[in-house]
Write a structure and sequence with these properties.
Layout: E1 17-19, E2 22-24, H1 26-38, H2 60-69, H3 75-80, H4 83-86, H5 174-183, H6 188-203, H7 221-226, E3 243-245, H8 253-268, H9 279-288, H10 290-304, E4 310-312, E5 316-318, H11 328-351, H12 355-366, H13 375-399, H14 405-439, H15 447-453
Helix pairs in contact: 5-13, 6-8, 6-12, 6-13, 10-11, 10-12, 10-14, 11-14, 12-13, 12-14, 13-14
Subcellular location: Nucleus
Keywords: DNA-binding, Metal-binding, Nucleus, Receptor, Transcription, Transcription regulation, Zinc, Zinc-finger
Pfam families: Hormone_recep (PF00104), zf-C4 (PF00105)
Length: 457
Amino acid sequence: MDSIYFCTVCSSAKGTSLYYGGLVCGGCKVFFLRTVRNQYEYKCKNKGNCSIKDGFIKCRACRFALCLKSNMNPSTVGISRETKCLTKDELPDLLDDLDADRNDQATCSFMIPEDFPVIETDEKSTVSANHNPLKRNWKDRGVEEFDRRRAVVPYLNKSFKRNTELLSTSYLIGKSFIEELKKSGLSATLMAKRLSQLESFCDLEHSMAPINPSFNLDVSLEAAIRDPLALCTRTPMGWAHGRMVCDGMMDIISVIYTRIALHYLDWVSALHELQELDERDKFSLVSSQLCQIELSTMVYNTYKEGKDGLLFASGFHFLPPKGKPKDEFDGFILALSVYMQTEVISKFKELQINAEEYALMKIIGFFTPIVLLSESGATVIQRARLKYEQLLLEYIKETYPTLSEGERQRRMYKIVAINRNLLHLGIMDNSYITKMFSLNMANLQKRFTYDMHLKKY
């Protein structure tokens, strides 16, 4: 059954989605849009103390105040009016076209902090300009058919032909998948360990950090997927080398955002089920799941390293400040870290979740999107989710043989249920990044951030 989301203004479930930075229904979206466009000014007769009756607010002043409280941003209304232009080949004037001036190598679209951490290691570097950590370890994916130079996500290559045979079979559905797995001589434990290894491949923790890494958000999502090094240089994620930061996150967030986005694209490249989706569904799914998946990556590594606060990409460790946050953005990061510690990491600790269970939980979360897909796309996603849920249950059976069937099912349910908290985190994060884009905070008003957080496919 699909999840139902309620409007944060009036509690209605009709057409509720993310509009202008807030999780609201279609009615509140239209009300907010008309108010901002027409520059209406409302006054409350009850001094802002009007109540909600039967899901309806008669006072327009209080309704608009609740819209603002729900993180709806008036500045994004002007941007949304240009979305029709942005769905075409040419982007609007808001995002300058830099293709004519761009060299083959990615350039930095924002300032890199002088104290950007370089993570030293005694091991020799295995990273080259065209390094793809997945190609050496996922040979069964047939990557030789695609662009060897930079295509980390080969299934989005224009020359790739979709294989639709699985759409008419039960190959990916539940029990049949486990039966086929056993017939092949593979175990759920082995499959789960491979998925766990994928995290290590994307982290690049045993590689040398480049001296002058490049970061560039002035690329489209399509370009970044097909040519990921146009987004940024692959650097070690630095989970175990966190440099403590208590404030001033705004100064480094662009670097962190770009690197975690590349980590996400590298991870997505191994999910072969996406080969069965058409281009629109692929872009819709990949863009809609960025925030939830990147936050799950950060929160798990924070748990694994036993840290307080929150570990970010590129070797930064946010610790809650002793006093008040330096600014609004630091306050937002503080709220994220507190929620992660109390609502997610606490559950990780309770379950003592391991790397394999986390890897499967993360994939199940990815294939539980809130974005609307085509009928065929929804079928592929549903089958993929059922496949990995069955794989998780089988893995628990193999790993905890002393548990009863009921105990195994309860453990699986608790693990999968964590994705609900991560979804809430993703919605919070996506809303704030939308605000940052509209106000060009941290110089995030770039093509990639637009494609990921505002563009409709």
